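pasting for the record
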Amino acid sequence: MAPLQGPRDDPAVTGGGATAPAAPSGLTATAASRTQARLTWTDNVDDETGDRIERCQGTGCTTFTEIATVGAGTTTLLDGGLTRNTAYTYRVRAFNTTGTSAYSNTATTRTTR
């Protein structure tokens, strides 16, 4: 008798064959002021609970921290309290009760002087 097989070892798949939401895409970041950045992205799913937005300081940085969670269908965020003339890099991922998507592309902007 062959052994039973469990769920695939894939971070976007959970037990029972259910899949996590598709990743957001088309993330852009633009300076909105000396202390704010405006983010926009494309929501690629209808069944997400929301999106988690992460940020790190610098260009090419890799140490991201979650800065916000937004509700389903939201595709913009104004990130405030930033340091002037500083580069910030962002990424977004969708989530629902099944799991969490892969990350979106990253987008970098520099606040104004």
